[in-house]
Design a protein that fits this description.
This protein is mostly helical. The chain is 74% helix and 1% strand. Strands 1-2 form a two-stranded antiparallel ribbon. The mean pLDDT is 92. It binds tryptophan (TRP).
């Protein structure tokens, strides 16, 4: 078999994996979920989820992947029992579904980027609302953009781990940070921005209930790319001397920092023009274009420029994430059925494009429903609320209870070359805290407790 490739440096590891983690989940889902769940109190709970469940979960997937240096299914099987490969299969299936509907939203961002550049997002509030409704209910256009996004992802993946994933991450992640900083500064300098900053930083725990905690956990999983063997696949390209604890912590902090910055970009601007930020998924397609225009009219950095920067930011963030979802399946088909990498990538591209088309149609043009939900919402529900937690739960049970503890310790400490002071905390968390929390939240979700 040809050389699998490895990320070339520590920086490449961090940027590629952070690229997977940082995506629409941070810049689109986090702000509106925060808006709907009470602002700062939600963020506090979210942070707790990241620290208590997220980082140990990430380390577990890192251990599985880096140890085996192979695709997710074989990596899980190699832990000891053949049946564990089903955890890998589940991850591959989950990430394929996610890529399908994620590409739809990413496609909207791409279309909005071009519309922003062409100056088509100028107009009054009603115009922007109509623009979105017209676009999203068109049967053809959004499908084409979604499929286009899958194809762009395909093109990067086909170039391989180093020339594709690594190179694109190294280019896009710094750019993303720069764009975000410009937007945050512009937004926080608006008159009346303080109300937005307060909303984000002043916790009001009276709004917290079981549902809020469930949302926070789901968001943490989704944002850290946990539970789908995505991190396991990326870790199979890590070096043997990569410090897994340190990398997981750095990536989790970076991911959370970007989410907060996204909030600092959106809420101050929204509050400054008197818009409530709880409008749900359409926040970035209806509320924000309006906000940018109103808030920044007549300024040197005007609505036009900021809209272009904003949608470019979304497209970059989305692309580094779709790449990671695509890679899970591509690595699997490439290594398990011995297809050349490019052909393996085509399998995923075709399947995900089909899912994207159906999801896209269900989001506007046609009434495609499953279990009483539009197909797109159903895919989101099925993955974020069921498949990701199940994947995370099974991984924690395998790593905490079923595999040889010495093996886990050796991987955690890189064969004893790193201090093991945190190992006990990790094991405790992965044995008790992670599975119990996931289970409780899962049961709560279905009304059992
Ligand atoms: N974490 C990404 C985001 O926040 C989405 C993502 C990428 C993902 N890869 C994943 C989510 C794998 C779940 C599983 O947008």
């Amino acid at each position: 078999m040809e050389n699998r490739g490895n990320f070339g440096s520590k920086l490449a590891i961090i940027l590629a994996t952070a690229g997977s983690a940082i995506g629409l989940g941070n810049i689109w889902r986090f702000p509106f979920t925060t808006g709907q769940n009470g602002g700062a109190a939600f963020i506090v709970i979210y942070f707790a989820c990241v620290l208590l469940l997220g980082i140990p979960g990430m380390i577990s997937e890192f251990i599985v992947g880096r140890r085996a240096q192979t695709n997710a299914a074989r990596a899980y099987a190699s832990l000891g029992r053949k049946e564990w490969r089903f955890v890998g299969y589940l991850g591959i299936l989950t990430s394929t579904i996610i890529l399908g509907f994620y590409a739809v939203v990413a496609g909207w961002c791409l279309q909005y980027l071009l519309a922003a550049i062409a100056g088509q997002l100028n107009g009054d509030t009603q115009y922007i609302v109509n623009y979105f409704q017209e676009f999203s209910s068109d049967p053809v256009k959004p499908c084409l953009w979604g499929v286009a996004f899958v194809f762009i992802t395909h093109f990067v993946i086909a170039q391989g781990v180093n020339k594709g994933i690594e190179r694109v991450s190294k280019l896009l992640m710094p750019l993303l940070l720069i764009l975000l900083m410009i937007l945050v500064v512009a937004s926080c300098m608006l008159p009346g921005a303080v109300a937005g900053i307060e909303f984000l930083l002043k916790p009001d725990f009276s709004k917290v209930n079981g549902d809020v905690i469930l949302e926070a956990l789901g968001q943490a999983f989704f944002s850290l790319s946990l539970g789908t063997a995505c991190l396991c696949t990326y870790a199979s390209y890590f070096n043997r001397d990569t410090n897994l604890l340190k990398s997981a912590t750095q990536i989790a902090l970076l991911d959370s920092a970007i989410a907060i910055l996204a909030g600092l970009m959106i809420f101050p601007a929204a509050f400054s023009v008197g818009v409530q930020p709880d409008s749900g998924p359409s926040l970035i397609f209806i509320t924000l274009p309006n906000v940018f225009q109103q808030a920044f009219s007549g300024m040197p950095l005007n609505g036009y420029i900021l809209s272009c920067l904003f949608y470019a930011l979304l497209v970059f963030a989305a692309l580094t994430s779709t790449i990671s979802m695509h890679e899970i399946g591509t690595a699997f088909f490439h290594e398990e059925i011995n297809l050349p990498r490019k052909r393996a990538a085509w399998i995923l591209t075709v399947v995900c494009s089909a899912i994207a088309v159906f999801c896209s149609l269900s989001a506007g043009a046609y009434d495609l429903q499953l279990f009483g939900m539009p197909l797109m919402d159903f895919c989101d529900f099925l993955t974020a609320k069921i498949m990701l937690p199940v994947g995370g739960f099974l991984t924690s049970i395998i790593m905490g209870w079923l595999v040889d503890r010495k093996m886990v310790q050796d991987e955690f400490t890189n064969q004893g070359t790193i201090r093991e002071s945190f190992f006990r905390a990790y094991i405790f968390s992965i044995r008790y805290i992670v599975p119990c929390c996931i289970l409780m939240i899962f049961l709560h979700q279905f009304g059992v407790i």
